[in-house]
Design a protein that fits this description.
Layout (H helix, E strand, L loop, with lengths): L3 H21 L3 H22 L8 H29 L4 H24 L11 H23 L10 H29 L12 E2 L28 E5 L5 E3 L1 H4 L17 E9 L3 E11 H8 L7 E6 L4 E5 H5 L2 E6 L2 E2 L9 E3 L12 E7 L6 H7 L5
Helix pairs in contact: 2-3, 3-4, 3-6, 4-5
The site of protoporphyrin IX containing FE (HEM) has 30 residues, from helix 2, helix 3, helix 4, helix 5 and helix 6.
Length: 383
């Protein structure tokens, strides 16, 4: 049994913690709406992060981390308040409990990833699990809102006190995020050297020896170079069909009369995959700008779409596309099939799923093809 002195100290500590929590805890309905708002922010920044590969978008990931960690305080307030009700389950309560568990799972896997954790789940890893759990919150949250929606009320806001509570909680979230970076460096974890996107280095400058991943289901049979050609179509003056020899630095072209404009080109670029790795290489092939100059693009042309043999496709604005590369080689090695042989797009600053593999067509368009958003999810699914 603890001596009387210890018991009094413990009781005092408990009392102090209870007063601290009471001072920090907003009114119940505000807690609910704050949870909703923070979940909306983490989900939006999580998805936006998939489209962000340039350092000027680092704020997206910082916001994601700070909002995610600020969620902890509100989750604690909420679960403390409703835990007694969860002991008397109904369908709605069971689904609410599931939502809480999935949210805690998303939080835990996010923090685990940030600290350099990894998990082998066959074709997936820890970051995929994190994203999966995060996305699973969406339908559960929609159901929860449909069943339990109560409009926020201004009576719940208590002026300066509420402002101070929110400042304290978000500052704690930001501090936790900052400390996570310092702790990672101090402990020298695998999380210390990750990019601002959260991705970790894999196989840079080692030719084809970097991870092979497919966005959703794309997995075509190897493309035979002799049967393959690159077609350039759309809003161009002189549509062209190019053979491998016309675009490869080791090709014995020229088959195309503008071969001189398609001089061998090399670019150093970093491929940052949304499954959590990045790899930097020298890519050899042709500059898309040279290809566009060779065929001549028409007035009003605004987008350049790169289409794969699988139907997968992605567009870049013309000016950005000019600086992209259509690569046949990586670090001087012919591209391996898994990396998109014979030709893949190298789009610096874009995430990996936008670096279209197995390219067989370049299409210049006036308007963006919206169907490509669907194609990235379904191409390969029917094979
Ligand atoms: C309930 C939903 C989610 C929560 C609570 C959550 C929370 C978190 C947290 C706390 C971290 C660690 C941040 C850090 O300490 O630096 C993190 C990392 C990350 N999350 Fe989420 N997340 C959610 C959903 C998503 C979704 C839907 C995506 C993508 C579509 C996503 C993508 C990422 C990525 C890429 C990282 C790594 C960032 C880094 O390592 O700095 N998250 N998340």
């Amino acid at each position: 049994m603890a001596p009387d002195g210890d018991r009094t100290a413990l009781a005092r500590l408990r009392g102090a913690l209870a007063r601290f929590r009471a001072a920090l805890e907003p009114r119940p309905r505000l807690v609910d709406w704050s949870l909703f708002a923070l979940l909306a922010v983490v989900l939006a920044t999580g998805v936006l992060g998939f489209l962000s590969g340039r350092p000027d978008r680092a704020w997206v990931f910082v916001t994601h981390g700070v909002a995610g960690l600020s969620l902890v305080a509100f989750l604690y307030f909420k679960l403390r308040r409703v835990r007694a009700r969860l002991a008397r389950p109904t369908v709605t309560r069971a689904l609410s409990a599931l939502m809480a568990a999935v949210t805690v799972g998303a939080l835990a896997t996010g923090v685990w990833w940030a600290f350099g954790g990894s998990l082998d789940l066959g074709p997936w890893g820890l970051l995929n699990l994190h994203v999966g759990l995060g996305l699973a919150v969406v339908p559960l949250l929609a159901y929860h809102l449909a069943k339990r929606f109560r409009p926020p009320s201004t009576r719940d806001v208590r002026g300066r006190r509420t402002a101070l509570q929110y400042t304290a909680i978000v500052t704690a979230g930001a501090l936790a995020w900052r400390l996570q970076g310092s702790a990672n460096r101090l402990l020298d974890t695998a999380g210390a050297t990750r990019r601002f996107t959260g991705s970790r280095e894999a196989g840079s400058d080692e030719g084809n020896a970097f991870p092979v991943t497919a966005w959703v289901a794309d997995d075509p049979a190897p493309v035979a170079v002799d049967d393959w050609s690159l077609s350039v179509r759309g809003a161009v003056d002189a549509p062209a069909d190019l053979a491998y020899a016309d675009v490869a630095p080791d090709g014995d072209g020229p088959a195309h009369e503008d071969r001189a404009l398609l001089a061998a080109h090399e670019d150093r670029a970093l491929l940052d995959c949304t499954s959590g790795w990045y790899s930097e290489h020298d890519w050899q092939g042709v500059r898309v700008g040279a290809l566009l100059d060779a065929v001549g693009i028409r007035d009003g042309a605004a987008w350049v779409q790169f289409r794969s043999v699988t139907g997968y496709r992605w567009s870049l604005p013309v000016e950005e596309a000019r600086d992209a590369t259509l690569a046949t080689h990586v670090d001087g090695e012919r591209l391996a099939h898994g990396h998109g042989a014979p030709l893949r797009l190298v789009a610096p600053g874009r995430r990996g799923f936008q670096w279209v593999k197995w390219v067989e067509e370049v299409r210049v368009t006036r308007r963006r093809d919206r169907s490509e958003w669907l194609a990235v999810f379904v191409s390969g699914v029917d094979e």
